[in-house]
Amino acid sequence: MCGIVGYIGDKDACEILVEGLKRLEYRGYDSAGVALLADSRIDVMKTPGKVARLEKMVSGPRPAKVGIGHTRWATHGEPNTVNAHPHTDCTGKIAIIHNGIIENHSALKTKLISLGHKFRSQTDTEVIAHLIEEFYSRTSNLEVAVRLALKDVDGTFGLVVMSASEPDILVAARRGSPLLIGLGDSENLIASDASALIRHTRDVIYLHDNEIAVISRKNVSLKNLDDEAIEREAEHLTFDLEQIEKGGFDHFMLKEINEQPETVLNAFRGRLIDDEGISKMGGLRDVEDKIANAKRFVILACGTSWHAALVGKYILEQYAKIPVEVDYASEFRYRNPVLLDGDIVWAISQSGETLDTLAALREARGKGAPVYGIVNVVGSTIARETDAGVYIHAGPEIGVASTKAFTSQLAVLNLINLLVARKRKTISLEQGREIVAEMHRLPEKIQKILDQTDQIEAIAEEFKESRNFLYLGRGVNFPVALEGALKLKEISYIHAEGYPAAEMKHGPIALIDENMPAVFIALGDSTYDKILSNIQEVRARKGNVIVIANEADGRLRELAKHIIEIPKTLDILSPILSVIPLQLLSYYMAVKRGCNVDQPRNLAKSVTVE
Ligand code: M6R
């Protein structure tokens, strides 16, 4: 999500860092900063906003030949100067840049404060700077101090540290966040992404999880976090800049679809209490009781976020037994809605800038309701204007068609459901534990679906000339049918409609013939037999049927032209899996029709107009 670059050599470090940060900016861009080491002191310069602003701030030749730089996509603490990276320890002699999330940062911070450390920011990263300082004061060795500090850390990191006391090295470490070292001639670089390096070198060493690297001008040594040396050959990069930015995928949308095992994990990270079968979310800590005692939730959103809200309604009503209204933000704001005492209004938005959603939440606040957010972009307007909220931590979503944000919104709605249901005692401890256990299994199950891409691509090839599509699902998977239809129309320009499967007989069935494919979501739940009857109705009219199923039985095999099997999970979590084949299907349909997948016609990523 964020971008990291580090340099040690004989050139102007600042210039190299800023140029590298510009290359990384597509990954996240709410603030940027550099730390430069010269004459045994570290100078930190940072600013909110784009790298261009940092560039102006640091302009002119600078003596430092060693430095680290960072472009931030906020996870903890709003995007401002203090929260921007690099972060330093109390003495200002140790500086760090970090990607990832430190799950136990609150506990570590409390401990470090009791030891006398003074904190400046709200970030989880600053905790590591102080932890390293603590170990450095005992060992006087940066590599050892970093290694010991990381033993105390839970969560993910790709980080680079430097110390004014050891000016000839950078120390880097990785767990879950990518880092690679660029090998130059009497200079070495480190970055989170090859795009920041390839102007200087194409010879690189990738750091693996739980490894630490000590990088000097002429040397790179690798160890694991247990202090055992590692030998690794350098690789020569051949791909171009555009390929690197898209992570080797042809489009950002495909990259983002493939990121979902990790983004769903990130939405859950540090928020599940396994033993107690409950969730905790920092942004809701102060309002947990208010949420649990609410009489009704009203959820406002647009587009894909509205589909997520609708899934939320099914989940929350079934488990937390709380009435839920879902409204299009654009309708809510103009229909003089009735809000009652005990209502809590939620706004869901990936961008946090959608004008209709913003106006609707202002309308709700004007009527005196508490408004909470479920947002991706930290520090966005909706995040700032809500009373409390949860970030979904999906990272920057660049493709106009929302994919990973949707599954992360569903993950967070499930966390809220778990919290409310356990607090209201509408589910037992055992049920809570079962949900938590299944949440942990989801990333692996998502990956299994992503491994079936070839089958989905072949289906797209067969149906790419169709002019119309129907998407049908029931219960919690009805909103997924809506989302599948939206994905198809927005990027492939094929007309598609989503319906609750049982509604078909009330009208849409008239459309069905051999030219009208129907995509069913027929998972092995209580509605399975009923959906089979709906599929029969389509087959009887010669319609082609594509089915998303768990394990297809004989009856289904007889009826469906194509069956895409997905792993079984709990009903309430199933939309997180069932939507993925639909995302892939629309992606490949669009590619095969020659459409501009990442920037479809007439659409904008963030709709800030009425
Ligand atoms: O940023 P938001 O979640 O508020 O955006 C809402 C919609 O504009 C958005 O989901 C839109 O429908 C997407 N293009 C769907 O892929």
Task: Please sum up the structure shown.
The chain is α/β, with parallel strands linked by helices and about 600 residues long. Strand 16 (about 270-275) and strand 17 form a beta hairpin. The longest helix is centred in the C-terminal third of the chain and has 22 residues, at about 430-450.
Describe the structure.
The chain is α/β, with parallel strands linked by helices. It folds into three domains: 3-237, Glutamine Phosphoribosylpyrophosphate, subunit 1, domain 1 (4-Layer Sandwich), CATH 3.60.20.10; 247-449, Glucose-6-phosphate isomerase like protein, domain 1 (Rossmann fold, 3-Layer(aba) Sandwich); 452-597, Glucose-6-phosphate isomerase like protein, domain 1 (Rossmann fold, 3-Layer(aba) Sandwich). Helices cover 37% and strands 22% of the residues. Strand 9 (180-183) and strand 10 form a beta hairpin. Helix 17 (478-492) packs parallel to helix 20. The two termini are 30 Å apart.
